[in-house]
Amino acid sequence: xxxxxxxxxxxxxxxxxxxxxxxxxxxxxxxGLTGGIACYKSAELCRLLIKCGASVQxxxxxxxxxxxxxVTMQALSQRPVALSPxxxxxxxxxxxxxxxxxxxxxxxxxxxxxxxxxxxxxxxLLSLMCLAxxxxxxxxxxxxxxxxxxxxxxxxxxxxxxxxxDGAVVLGVGTGDQACGEVGDGRMLxxxxxxxxxxxxxxxxxxxxxxxxxxxxxxxxxxxxxxxITNLSSGKMGFAVARAAREAGATxxxxxxxxxxxxxxxxxxxxxxxxxxxxxxVMDKAKxxxxxxxxxxxxxxxxxxxxxxxxxxxxxxxxxxFIENTDILATLAQSERGQSRDLFCVGFAAETQDLLANAxxxxxxxxVPLLVGxxxxxxxxxxxNALVLVDESGTCELAHASKLSLARLLIVHIASRTRAxxxxx
Length: 425
Ligand code: CTP
Fold this sequence. Notes:
Blueprint: H1 2-9, E1 28-33, H2 39-51, E2 55-60, H3 70-77, H4 93-99, E3 103-109, H5 111-119, H6 125-132, E4 140-144, H7 148-152, H8 154-165, E5 169-170, E6 174-177, E7 183-187, H9 191-201, E8 211-216, E9 221-224, E10 227-229, H10 236-247, E11 251-256, E12 268-271, H11 275-285, E13 291-294, E14 301-303, E15 322-324, H12 328-333, H13 336-339, E16 344-351, H14 355-366, E17 370-375, H15 376-379, E18 384-391, E19 394-402, H16 403-420
Parallel strand pairs: 1-2, 1-3, 3-4, 4-5, 8-11, 8-13, 11-12, 13-16, 16-17
Antiparallel strand pairs: 6-7, 9-10, 14-15, 17-18, 18-19
């Protein structure tokens, strides 16, 4: 893979330059709308697609036009909406529409339209177009939206299984209040989630089959029920790594300290509070993992005593004694599993000075093949970062870029390292 080679070539040489790019730049997306209340979300979805740099061709079924007008979708997509196969200006539209497309996204996709796809029925422009799309080069993403009973019905589930077997990517559904007043599964995913899924579908699947375990964020060490010690880690780098690993096709478990960040799509998140909670969860989940990436800023110490009740002022400030927390990364990396070739461990180092020397020392002390260094105060809470990768053969700088761009490069690097040692998922 080109990027992987690039990373190796630049070891000990010039930094890799990463450009901040719109994630869907130059992508042409066919956005199909079928009949459902969730059509109101498709307007926002279309706007976000354009914002991400995509060009968008909207195709609507007759039923979709009952929920939102083609005029709205035309204004947002900046193109006339395709509605009918019987259009003299666009003969054979059902063929041409997908020939320049990078992906087709049907959002919302009704139960009826899922059934049509499952049977290859082609009696309107959108279903004709889906049947005529080049199946090997144009992915078809389906965002179902329906009442919870329709979603759970065996016929719908059978049809979804069928279209998945036929190569469609069936995205999940949300749970919650439905337009009909019922509560349950079947809501269309939110526009930002659909965008995340679409972007993911264009990323190289370099970690398919792998299970990646990631720690992220700070930990919180309680002093009493209302006070504690924590640090300034926002968790953004770890969450970006989790998203990038999932985009690369891995199953991802994210063990998160107290942060207020949304969970990346498709990532299994486990919230923890203290370093001890994090250690316990990591050791449990490590059994299934093939890659462990420790991005968390784990508190080094915890008070040796946690008061049951709030400590009141008594004229004298309390004296705190600390004990050192177990090093989660070192414990796992130096365990039998960490030493085996079944688990590849990656550490992070947030430093304030002497980044390279500290990162190299830390890599050896923790016993990990790869350590990623960054300047903590410059990165905490920011959307951007700069990294230096340190391994046995040298260093590689990843120049200043968004945390997500850096996370994707890091994942490609990790994938090439695991491939090199014969560790497959
Ligand atoms: N780490 C860990 N458990 C700890 C401390 C650190 O898993 N109790 C992991 C971090 O997630 C990171 C790496 O070890 O991947 C380095 O963490 P860092 O805080 O930079 O280093 P420390 O070992 O704590 O050393 P120091 O604070 O002295 O720099």
